[in-house]
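**User:** You know discrete backbone vocabularies at least as well as I do. Would you mind producing a protein record, from residues through to fold? Write it directly below this note and I will take it from there.

**Assistant:**
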Amino acid sequence: MKISEIKPQVYEMAARAEERIRSRFAQIDAVAEENTRRVMEAFQDNRVSDSCFAGTTGYGYDDLGREVLDKIYAQLFGAEAALVRINFVNGTHALTTAMFALVKPGDTILAVTGTPYDTLRSAIGISGDGFGSLKFYGVNYGEVALTAEGKPDLPAIEKAAADEKVTAVMIQRSRGYADRPALTVQEIGEICKSVKRVNPNCNIMVDNCYGEFTDVIEPTHVGADIVAGSLIKNPGGGLAPTGGYVAGKARLVERAALRLTTPGIGAECGSTLGNNRLLFQGLFMAPHVVAQALKTAVFCAAMMEQLGIESSPTVEEKRSDIIQMVKLGSPDKLKKFCLGIQAGAPVDSYVTPEPWAMPGYDDEVIMAAGAFIQGSSIELSADGPMREPYIAYMQGGLTYESGKLGIMMAVSAMLD
């Protein structure tokens, strides 16, 4: 499939969809404008200069750009400190590092938004018995399910968090591979209040992947003690080539740094290898790029609505992550949707996605990701586990115009 093969009826559908979603775009632009103001203010307050872009090698001592970027992230997240590093190989690595900063052998970490995302299950020890997991080191795990509506069960959370062995609570902001809505920052704030009410010394961590800059505040503004995420998702703006971040209370960020490197070194080492400019420029672009991804997701919802296919969030719903869930119902339809997204990409558009056993996942996963940065979720992509009800999780879009074409390609493939 090529862009030139998009069916005329799909262009007609797209015109109807854009007419329907015009007011939503204005709301998204308003959030992007406020977040751009916050980013600009943080850059100015921390005196970003050309000298910040010079990278380091070897041990990475005295890396000005690395130190300034940590301060900028801390300011943006309303946090005491931050750790922004290309040493993080992915979001799961950053999240695992943050989790280890919260617990010691014998403690219990409590997931209060149901079972965590697939790749974190191995890190915790929920699935498998991997060397070095939290379970391996004697950390216990507890879980509170969401309500039938996919919302936090605050009474159940309070009851479970009151256990004196619970020293850490984990909240997953995004839907991940679950059939539930993303949590708003306000909902995360209510969870934090409930936990602190019964267990004031408990540390609360938020998996912030896919959620950054979708609102004008972050979970650390409403009571979370630490957040973590990936730089090849929202905050990297499509320019960061790799990496992740941790932000929150200074003592917890310091512990995360000791876990990332080694005790005695912490955040003092870690060369940036010439990547500082991309990390700064990506963060500068992030509010705008996230807005483009959100517009692409809203457009997808409007197109699926015309096809009679269930998707979430709906056009009108408030969004707290960049993911659009499309419930396709069969393996063939899931493959066709991903084929269309891949065909609408600027890179590897000729490739046919096939399910495969990705590391860290219990089921085979199909992934359409024709991206400039391998695995970048802020670029247009779609993936999903090959299990019922065969849901595609679409996210990203560096520009709305290209994201729109990708969705139109997916619709064309499905109509075939």
User: Anything to note?
Assistant: Residues 270 and 291 are 32 Å apart (CA to CA). The radius of gyration is 21 Å. The chain has ten helices and twelve strands.
